[in-house]
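Hi team, as promised in this morning's meeting, here are the two structures we talked about. I've kept the exact order from the run log so nobody has to guess. The first one is mostly here for context; it's the second one we should focus on when we meet again. Sequence first, then the predicted structure tokens.
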Amino acid sequence: MEELNRKSVDEFKESEKNPVIAVLENIRSAYNVGSVFRTADAFLIESIFMTGYTARPPHKEITKTALGAQDSVDWSYFETTKEAIEHLKKDGYKVFAVEQVSDSISLENIADLSADKIAFIFGNEVSGVEEEIISLCDGCVEIPQFGMKHSLNISVAAGIVLWEAVKSSLTLKEK
């Protein structure tokens, strides 16, 4: 572990986090939730918010894919995504749904969002982010896709979006 420069759970908890929060709205698969925990740990993001019927720790399938990240990454549960958004906005976060809509911002332009603190809502594997929730957001972010399928598994989408957000956050810190 030392050679790989990996943090212990305590070191992770004490580390300065990237001001990014992943909001998981009604995610059906606990395996997907566990995968987002691993990604959140890898990129040192602030927290994961889970809403609705999204599974939360302790949960066998989350543990299987999170590989311990459920113990290092801070998380909170909100009964509704609306409550989570209200909490985020009160704390100064800009909130974006990850969704394909007519006026969505392409992910490669994420640096243009210019937010010190940013949250991304990842929706249900089948129905996406609820329309009512999209209207409460500061905007939508879309991952460019060029093939026949124009959707990604939520855990894959979270990995891509969270990395881009952290990369932008690191760039802002350097300036």
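And here is the second protein, the one for discussion:
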Amino acid sequence: MRTTINIAEDALLAARHLAQRERMPLGDAISQLVRRGAAAGSDHAAARQSVPLRGRFALLPARDEVITPQHVRELMEREGI
């Protein structure tokens, strides 16, 4: 179906990235992202209840590596923070 919509620039960039990565038309990428969001929205309440909290912060699952200050610095440099 053909339609005109206004979307946020960051959402458009995400859709373009998906379209380029998966080699699909932009409209198909937007449709896929909307479907994912709709499916995730229905599971959102259940997921929020299953995530353990410590104070205001959700606890992440255990990993096989120790996160060091160097890991954090590298990530901050990569993200431009």
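Starting points for discussion:
Residues 9-79 form one domain.
The two ends are 41 Å apart (CA to CA).
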